[in-house]
């Protein structure tokens, strides 16, 4: 019990202890050359001058010898960004610095600024590297990729929505509204971890802070939802808000890769998604004008299930009974949700104002039945 | 026989004790309640002491136990169809109840566990005394249907008929099972229900629940008779927890009653009775007293001076509540009442959503509540009350020891 707790805490400490620092003072006893790794990037290769370095200050001297614009990263084992340099044009040179502790890292070049990049290992020695479970690192990396994919897939859908608003096409905007939110709802805890994006894009009228004026300070999806469904008209302000939404979502898309994600935060994120359902969607508060709550509901469950599936191999070793229960309750909730859509390939769900009190209670009970064991997942992966 | 305020023991003297002399002696010595009887190691714990009530015994605690000040009652529906899983839940619930009634936290406690995991216990009862917490479990008719146990369903557990004036809300009625939590501290009672509900998630769901305060009946006649929200003393003639004979006769299911698994159990009828207290409060004192058949200050029956004087029913109006509810008007039918007052905010029309959460234990629902309630069809009180919730449960016998569990006699193969 005690040991398990310590290892969980140290793992978290390692993950959060590192930040990119630029322009830091170098150690006097080290020749600066020892601390520089040359990175030569082409369209198909990523050459690094060293595969090992002692802990402390490190500098990457990057040259792009390819024809495509590239990016270079130092990554944690779970793909979190230690430091990065974007927009390195063909034929240009860039430098980037960081402080690194002992552990296993990777240097990645991303020609064309897309994909997982070309990777080189970088071992940092000295001090004690915390023992890490490579399966959990892989789970976090996969989840980070998923979060990025959701953001990438959301932007075109959000643009369709925004264009319809800007064209003043009420019906097309209504149709595009719920699909534009799915990727966001699936990965909401990651987006919320940035703190500043969520209040811009996903705040409800009741979520405005004191002193905020709904007329001028309320932005994002739900403000537009009110215009479309309740006011039934699109104003010039709404058209500005549509542009603002795309700006804010692009910001989210650019930052998802840097989110702090740990196995524990993944597990808790899954639980948080169910909390979102329990407090907002089941009550019909989230989509009070459009009544598209069940679309969000399904997306929240999908996101939670993604986290769970990635953590399952480790969780199963530590708590097989919990995994059995979670499999059962995820299946039960998904089956129940499927009652509310004509076919399981579409995200067209019953309008929530047509869902009666008894059915809402049934949904709420199914959410509780899943969320209660899900709250034990973090402990099952932190053991 | 001359009676005084503290005449409880002298009435009990006639029933099942070693002899009238002993009881009268006790009364003479100041009317002490806690007279030790064979098989009992001590009297009931005192309300003020925050003590624990024994969880194990031939009968479930929370029936004959001296009535505590507070109630949290919950009715559940079973969502699992897996009988083995439900039995596991009953065992888990028994373990948790054993701990909570002793004033302990459930599972690994409310703190000190893994930081990544939510604590087993919700924590709001930390540092509070056991507060005479009792937890009493019952099985509704629908439970027998769900698990294919119709053959074991007691005949005495009927589906309640419709009574005159019923205005039942389905969302506040029925249930596959119930848990009655009574304690002197409301936080202890709520903590108990909350933790059982949490343990039950995925297997059972709360169908409805009710908070109650200000016990409206007492099973300790020497204590002051409590008053209901109409301002009248309630439960003057109630069965006392020490009246073994009356308990055997009217409350506990006997061996010959059947089914065998119910021996030592009882049947509970729960009724949420809304009071139209605003109109009641505008009713003249004379009318109020006529409706009840007792006076408001002392609680004495019509024509009598003292609360505990024997009622003379014919002196009361034909539709007086006490007259119609009295055992003599119902072929001797007697209920052990254990109800509580409630106020659940207001009803949107500026009226208090208040009334009596009526709980009655009996040996047979047909001979008990049904008989009395049918007789109350003409009750003058009906103008001021409305039955809005209703449920009936078989209360299995007590949990005997550490290895026993709630409902074992019904669910285990050998019983």
UniProtKB/TrEMBL annotation, chain A:
One of its GO terms (cellular component) is periplasmic space. Residues 139-377 form the Imelysin-like domain. Residues 1-20 form the signal peptide. PROSITE patterns: PROKAR_LIPOPROTEIN. Gene3D superfamilies: Cupredoxins - blue copper proteins (2.60.40.420), M75 peptidase, HXXE motif (1.20.1420.20). Belongs to the EfeM/EfeO family. It comes from the Bacteria. This is Peptidase M75. It is found in: Periplasm. It holds the Pfam family Cupredoxin_1. Its main location: periplasm. Keywords: Signal. InterPro entries: Cupredoxin, EfeM/EfeO_iron_uptake, EfeO_Cupredoxin, Imelysin-like, Imelysin-like_EfeO/Algp7, Imelysin_sf, Iron_uptake_EfeM/EfeO.
TrEMBL record, chain B:
Its EC number is 1.11.1.-. Its cofactor is heme b. Residues 225-399 form the Dyp-type peroxidase C-terminal domain. It catalyses: heme b + 2 H(+) = protoporphyrin IX + Fe(2+). It is an enzyme of class 1 (oxidoreductase). Residues 60-213 form the Dyp-type peroxidase N-terminal domain. It is found in: Cell envelope. Keywords: Heme, Iron, Lyase, Metal-binding, Oxidoreductase, Peroxidase, Signal. GO terms for molecular function: ferrochelatase activity; heme binding; metal ion binding; peroxidase activity. Binds 1 heme b (iron(II)-protoporphyrin IX) group non-covalently per subunit. It comes from the Bacteria. One of its GO terms (biological process) is iron import into cell. Pfam families: Dyp_perox_C, Dyp_perox_N. GO terms for cellular component: cell envelope; cytosol. Involved in the recovery of exogenous heme iron. Extracts iron from heme while preserving the protoporphyrin ring intact. Belongs to the DyP-type peroxidase family. This is Deferrochelatase. It comes from Streptomyces antibioticus. The gene is efeB.
């Amino acid at each position: 019990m005690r040991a398990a707790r310590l290892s969980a805490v140290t793992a978290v400490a390692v993950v959060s202890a590192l930040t990119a620092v630029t322009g830091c003072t170098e150690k006097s006893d080290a020749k600066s050359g020892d601390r520089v790794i040359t990175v030569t990037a082409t369209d198909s290769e990523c050459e690094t001058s060293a595969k090992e370095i002692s802990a402390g200050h490190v500098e990457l001297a990057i040259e792009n010898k390819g024809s495509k614009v590239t990016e270079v990263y130092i990554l944690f084992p779970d793909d979190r960004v230690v430091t990065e340099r974007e927009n390195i044009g063909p034929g240009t040179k860039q430098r980037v610095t960081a402080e690194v502790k002992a552990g296993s890292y990777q240097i990645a070049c991303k020609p064309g600024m897309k994909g997982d990049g070309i990777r080189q290992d970088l071992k940092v020695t000295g001090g004690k590297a915390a023992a890490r479970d490579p399966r959990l690192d892989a789970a976090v990396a996969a989840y980070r990729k998923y979060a990025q994919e959701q953001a990438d897939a959301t932007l075109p859908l959000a643009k369709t929505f925004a264009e319809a608003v800007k064209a003043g096409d009420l019906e097309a905007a209504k149709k595009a509204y719920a699909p534009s939110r799915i990727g966001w709802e699936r990965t909401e805890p990651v987006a919320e971890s940035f703190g500043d994006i969520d209040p811009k894009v996903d705040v409800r009228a009741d979520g405005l802070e004191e002193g905020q004026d709904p007329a001028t300070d309320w932005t994002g999806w739900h403000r537009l939802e009110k215009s479309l469904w309740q006011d039934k008209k699109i104003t010039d302000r709404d058209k500005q808000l549509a542009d603002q939404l795309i700006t804010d979502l692009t910001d989210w898309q650019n930052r998802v890769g840097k989110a702090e994600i740990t196995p524990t935060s993944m597990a808790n994120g899954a639980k948080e998604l169910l909390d979102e359902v329990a407090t907002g969607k089941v009550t019909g508060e989230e989509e009070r004008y459009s009544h598209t709550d069940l679309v969000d509901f399904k997306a929240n469950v999908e996101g939670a299930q993604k986290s769970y599936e990635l953590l399952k191999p480790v969780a199963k070793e530590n708590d097989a009974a919990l995994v059995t229960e979670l499999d059962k309750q995820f299946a039960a909730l998904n089956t129940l949700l499927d009652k509310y859509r004509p076919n399981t390939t579409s995200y067209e769900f019953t309008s929530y104002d047509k869902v009666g009190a008894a059915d809402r209670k049934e949904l709420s009970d199914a959410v509780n039945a899943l969320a209660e064991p899900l709250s034990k997942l973090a402990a099952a992966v932190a053991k | 026989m001359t009676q005084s305020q503290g005449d409880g023991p002298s009435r009990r003297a006639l029933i099942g004790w070693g002899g009238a002399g002993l009881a009268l002696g006790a009364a003479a010595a100041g009317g002490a309640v806690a007279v030790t009887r064979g098989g009992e190691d001590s009297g009931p714990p005192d309300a003020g002491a925050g003590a624990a009530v024994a969880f194990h015994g031939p009968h479930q605690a929370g029936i004959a136990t001296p009535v505590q000040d507070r109630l949290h009652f919950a009715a559940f529906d079973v969502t699992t169809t897996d009988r083995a899983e439900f039995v596991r839940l009953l065992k888990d619930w028994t373990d948790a109840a054993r701990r909570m009634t002793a004033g302990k936290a459930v599972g690994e406690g409310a703190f000190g566990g893994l930081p990544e995991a939510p604590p087993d216990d919700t924590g709001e009862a930390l540092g509070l005394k056991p507060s005479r917490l009792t937890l009493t479990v019952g099985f509704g008719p629908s439970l027998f249907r769900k698990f294919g146990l119709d053959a074991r369903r007691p005949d005495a557990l009927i589906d309640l008929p419709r009574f005159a004036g019923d205005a039942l809300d389905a969302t506040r009625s029925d249930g596959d099972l119930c848990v009655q939590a009574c304690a002197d501290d409301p936080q202890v009672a709520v903590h108990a229900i909350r933790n059982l509900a949490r343990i039950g998630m995925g297997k059972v769901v709360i169908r409805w629940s009710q908070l109650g305060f200000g016990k409206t009946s007492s099973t300790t006649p020497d204590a002051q008779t409590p008053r209901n929200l109409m301002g009248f003393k309630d439960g003057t003639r109630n069965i006392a927890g020490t009246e073994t004979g009356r308990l055997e006769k009217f409350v506990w299911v006997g061996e010959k009653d059947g089914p065998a698994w119910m021996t030592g159990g009882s049947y509970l009828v729960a009724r949420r009775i809304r009071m139209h207290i605003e109109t009641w409060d505008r009713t003249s004192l004379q009318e109020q007293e006529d409706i009840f058949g007792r006076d408001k200050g002392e609680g004495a029956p019509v024509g009598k001076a003292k609360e505990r004087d024997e009622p003379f029913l014919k002196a009361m109006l034909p539709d007086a509540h006490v007259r119609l509810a009295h055992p003599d008007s119902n072929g001797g039918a007697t209920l052990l009442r254990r109800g509580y007052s409630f106020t659940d905010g207001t009803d949107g029309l500026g009226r208090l959503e208040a009334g009596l959460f009526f709980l009655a234990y009996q040996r047979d629902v047909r001979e008990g509540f049904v008989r009395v309630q049918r007789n109350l069809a003409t009750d003058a009180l009906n103008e001021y009350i409305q039955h809005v919730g209703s449920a009936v449960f078989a209360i299995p016998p007590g949990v005997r020891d550490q290895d026993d569990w709630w409902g074992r006699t019904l669910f285990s193969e050998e019983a």
